[in-house]
Write a structure and sequence with these properties.
- It is a single chain.
- The protein is mainly α.
- It starts with a helix and ends in a 5-residue tail after the last helix.
């Protein structure tokens, strides 16, 4: 009996519950939000109602801010993640595949996983100024310090049987890496790209509050400056929506093209 019950642990909800429960969770949050904001438990200056936030969100779409500022943020995140993948994935693969490379770089790279990344903003302003380059390079730095260790872990997670099979077929180390290890690790490496894209969206506002020009972070900061609380919430909600859409699209690519697991 206990064994049968244990089968319900750590498995996703399927069927009707799997479809209705996510919607029920969102509706519950909206109801609680409405009750708290209407009841006056929290001042309106700090917590607008959901419909006020929805009206502010519609205004962002209607006045063209979404196209202008949304595209600016998407471009920055896209450039930063592309640079992180181009630089970080080869380094992570080299560290995972070759112990001497790992030993040489691990004390240089791995400590940044726990570093307060936003504390480096003054350095990026010093090196790159306050314009577009600073924002992109800061987002690059904030993600590459994660994509390297995650790629390293992906390479090290490949079962040793793959390497043994390559040796049995007569492959040399580089051939083993290219034809066996990297293909087996690609699903986890792509997971690293997905995770780091989410990290980039979390750092976006910190990057864009420097020299407020364009971007979703600029929308939030301008609204905060003029105490337009509904627009602040709308801007944050818009970042969440775009981030989740990006995550969904990358997840779709992952399931379509990297649906195997080592």
């Amino acid at each position: 009996m206990i064994r049968d019950q244990a089968r319900y642990i750590a498995i996703p909800a399927v069927g009707y519950p799997g479809k209705i429960l996510p919607l029920a969770g969102v509706i519950t949050v909206l109801i609680l939000w409405s009750i708290i904001s209407v009841s006056g438990l929290v001042r309106a200056a700090f917590l607008p109602t959901p419909w006020e936030t929805a009206a502010a969100l519609w205004k962002i779409f209607a006045d063209g801010s979404f196209v202008h500022d949304g595209w600016a943020s998407i471009r920055r995140v896209g450039l930063a993640i592309s640079l992180s993948a181009i630089v970080g994935i080869p380094i992570g693969i080299a560290m995972g595949a070759f112990g001497r490379v790992e030993a040489f770089l691990k004390w240089v790279i791995f400590p940044f996983r726990t570093a307060p990344i936003t504390a480096f903003i003054p350095l990026f302003i010093l090196f790159f100024g306050i314009d577009e380059q600073m924002k992109v390079w800061f987002l690059f730095f904030g993600t590459v310090v994660y994509i390297i260790p995650l790629t390293f872990d992906a390479i090290r997670a490949v079962p040793h049987e793959y390497v043994d099979a390559a040796v049995d077929f007569g492959f040399r180390p580089m051939g083993t890496l290219i034809h066996f290890v990297i293909p087996a690790a690609w699903p986890r490496i792509f997971d690293a790209i997905i995770v780091c894209t989410g990290i980039a969206w979390t750092y976006l506002v910190a990057a864009e509050i420097v020299n407020l020009t364009t971007g979703l972070g600029a929308i939030v900061q301008h609204a905060q400056r003029f105490q337009d609380t509904p627009k602040v919430y709308a801007g944050i909600l818009l970042i969440l929506i775009i981030g989740n859409v990006t995550d969904f699209m990358l997840g779709l690519i992952r399931r379509t093209y990297f649906n195997w697991e080592a």
